Amino acid sequence: MNIRKTIALVAHDNRKPDLLEWVDYNWQSLQGHKIICTGTTGSLIQEKFNQKLKGSKEVGPEIIRLKSGPLGGDQQLGSLICTNEIDIMIFLWDPMEPQPHDVDVKALERIAVLYNIPYASNRASADFLISSELFKTGYKPKLKDYSSYINRKI
Ligand SMILES: O=C(CO)COP(=O)(O)O
C-alpha cells in the first residue's frame, strides 16, 4: 500500500456514534486518503467532514459510498479487498445485536483476515492503527502462498 491509503470505514447503527466520534478526533489524519464506506456510514462521515471543513478552503478526502450493509455493501467491500483495492478496514460491528446480514459480516471479516489487511473492529484498535508509524508510510502486507491450494489435484 502507498502513503495515500484507501481506508474502509463501516459501523453498525449502534456503533455509528463511536465511529463518528473517532472520525471527529482523527479527521486531520484522514485528510488526503481515500475513504470507502457502506451507504449509511458514508453519508454520516461525509456530513462530519462537511461540518469540519465548513468555511475553510481545504477539501475533504474522497469518500466513496457503496450500498448499505444489509443491501450488499459488506459484500461489495469484500470484493474490493479481494482485488487489493482496500488497504485498511475499520469496521465497528455490533457485538450485542444480531444483524439481518450477519453472514455477510462474517464473510467480510474472513476476507479481511485472508488478505491480511490491517483491520480494527473496535475503537481502541482503530486508535492504535491510525497512530502507528506504518500508517504514514508505504507497507506491503505479506500474503500467504495459496498456490498449492490453487493447483491442487481434483
Ligand atoms: O451494515 C453495515 C455493515 O455490516 C453498515 O451499513 P450502513 O453503513 O449502510 O449502515
Describe the overall structure.
It catalyses: dihydroxyacetone phosphate = methylglyoxal + phosphate. Keywords: Lyase. Its EC number is 4.2.3.3. Pfam families: MGS (PF02142). The protein is globular and about 60 Å long. The protein is built from six helices and five strands; from the N terminus they run βαβαβαβαβαα. The mean pLDDT is 97. The protein is α/β, with parallel strands linked by helices and 154 residues long. The chain has one domain: Methylglyoxal synthase-like domain (Rossmann fold, 3-Layer(aba) Sandwich). Strands 3-2-1-4-5 form a five-stranded parallel β-sheet. The site of 1,3-dihydroxyacetonephosphate has 12 residues, from α2 and α3.
Q: State the distance separating the first and last CA atoms.
A: 35 Å
Strand order of the largest sheet: 3-2-1-4-5
Q: Can you tell me the CATH topology?
A: Rossmann fold
The CATH class is identified as: Alpha Beta
Number of domains: 1
Compact summary:
This protein has 154 residues and is an alpha/beta fold. The chain has helices at 16-30, 39-53, 73-82, 102-114, 123-130, 147-150; strands at residues 6-11, 34-37, 62-65, 88-92, 119-120.
Question: Secondary structure elements and their pairing?
Answer:
Elements: E1 6-11, H1 16-30, E2 34-37, H2 39-53, E3 62-65, H3 73-82, E4 88-92, H4 102-114, E5 119-120, H5 123-130, H6 147-150
Parallel strand pairs: 1-2, 1-4, 2-3, 4-5
Helix pairs in contact: 1-2, 1-5, 3-4
Bound molecules: 1,3-dihydroxyacetonephosphate.
Catalytic activity: dihydroxyacetone phosphate = methylglyoxal + phosphate
Binding site for substrate: 12, 16, 38-41, 68-69, 101
Active site: 74
